[in-house]
Amino acid sequence: MHKSSQKIGEVAAVFLLSVLSYFLVPLLAYAQSQSESEPVESEFLLNNMRLQIEVTEAVNNMYNFKHERASVAFNALKYRYGWHPLPYFLLGLNEWWKIVPNENVTIYDQKLLAYMDSAINRAKKLYYQNEDNVEAAFFLAAAYGFKGRIHSERKNWRKAAVNGKNALKYLEISKKKPDFSPELLFGDALYNYYSVWIPENYPLLKPILIFFKKGDKELGLKQLREVSLNAFYTRTEAQYFLMRLLATEEKDVAGGLQIAEYLHRTFPDNAYFHRYYARLLYTTGQYIKARSVTLDLLKKIDDGERGYEAISGRYAGFFLGQIYDSFGQKDKAQHYYRRAVEFSEKIEATNTGYYLYSLLSLGEIAKEDGDRREARKYFKLVKKQAKSSHPSYKRAHSALKELRKGRG
Hints:
By secondary structure, the protein is mainly α. It has helices at residues 3-21, 49-63, 67-80, 85-99, 109-129, 134-153, 157-174, 182-201, 206-209, 217-230, 235-249, 253-266, 271-283, 287-302, 310-326, 330-346, 353-368, 372-385, 391-404.
């Protein structure tokens, strides 16, 4: 296959699988039209309000990175309802959220895939017993989508494509009985937004996307807002997407920050939400609040709390370095810039802005202090690690010239 064509296919696979895999908990909200008096083997578990409350509590534990508590509850469901895909899907979802803070972590992959396979096996049995079983079709679409998502993260493109194809098949089946609750609006919202966003950002994909229904980006955002306000199960997932889209693609950083603050307060031990909130506070120049939130982030990293690791540390060190630098507290700024450098080197992220600008700032502080030797060391390291087109390279080059001329 030609390299450019292969790349297009890879991006397309990631797009489709990303949308499909995040149907997540919408599956937990369906089946309002079914009867609880049906036999156990065909029971729609999600009608049961007691069970919904029980699952919601466990899902909240999962979002708050209390994965062991969530696992206990999900395993209890498996003990009672081992014939149903729900507990296996939730157990797999629990593994996925262990990956979210650092998607390069692979130690949870096999468990995730095994749980999704178990969910698929049980959903297929229910589906083959009754092809009108919309709940089974939803679980099949979600579990296949999740398998595709993890395979795409690992660049296993063939497996990703196979699972994505299966997910699309069962998604279409499940849509034969539409439900207008805000839970099921979540999938439509993502599709409406990303089916427009992808060709805008990857024009070469336009020929591929003509086979899919045209979306509506504004409608997608509107639907995400509706889900984030009115849904029960999918509220957090919708907020997660809305936060990221507003802060980045839609250039509404204030809107993204509002959601980030809510998510952090609601799930204070979720490393991803914590990191994103700190980032948006820093971006919007709210340095006093950003300092407090980021110091707490760094403390949790140092305490070894789940999900708090070097990626978040790189952010935290740089933000705190910049904040203390702006306050004129150079000693503290140096300390945190050095921590940003250490965290970056730990994860081999030495070609990123956080690393390069931390080095550059350390060089500039050393230069101000009259430590020319230390300053040269940092500026030279910037030039070694940065591409010549990177702004940090040019600044380091100019600084070294000044030092050679004796102006530094």
